[in-house]
Amino acid sequence: MTSPLKPILHEAEFQIRTYDIDSRKIATLPALVRLMQEAAMEQVIKLGISVWDLEPHDISWILMRNHMEIVRLPKLGEKIRVRTHPSGFERVYTYRDFRIFDQDGEQIASSSTAWLLMNTKTRRLTRIPPFILNLEDRLPAPETYLPRVNTKMDKEMAEIHWEKSFRVNWHDLDFNKHLNNTYYIQWMLESLPQRILDHKQLVDMQVQYQAEALLEDRVVSQCYEKENGHFQHRLVKEEDGKELAYLSTIWK
Q1: Which terminus of the chain has fewer CB atoms gathered within 10 Å of its CB, N or C?
Q2: The model's pTM
Q3: What class is the 162-251 domain?
Q4: What's residue 199's pLDDT?
Q5: Is 3.30.70.120 the CATH number for 10-144?
């Protein structure tokens, strides 16, 4: 039952800057994901469940899964509005929705995400504490949620058509001291053929994070064209082939 208190909802306005765009003057997917996470950070600070609030409890937020649908990517100088809110709890998962609107109020993208909490000392997953679960009564009405992201995705890589190698440097780390989740996406996209990056538009993206990449790790981005315009990606450790993340993209 929805609480009489105002439902938890946050909106943030951003302008697409020169460092957000590609050679076509259109925002890159990693840049858009960063802006969504900036909006989420603004909200969790207000709610008292940010990384700084969780530090005394030795826990931190970890993004596990993201399914994003894109109508179009915004252009250089364009102002966008990101609307976000938590969308429920289930066992160890916390869900969060994002919707992105242009200046005319048209929705240009949406994203359904699943998060976990990690114990920062043991690096293991932990249960959601009561002070976070207590927010459930203030969530927006369930009928307004995006379709819940599946916590498992197709990982099939029948073969490898393209690959590219990277090393995790200090500036690639986030506050959990592992590779920032946007770099996972960026590096997996880098192995795509240039004909796709130059001429096609991304319309659907699903990413699943499997394991941490740490400072000085060498990783390999692998890509397989499953069918025309549909690509399967994965990021693995060069040393032992450990799977770090999977990505599925559809381009038109």
Answers
A1: N
A2: 0.93
A3: alpha beta
A4: 95
A5: no
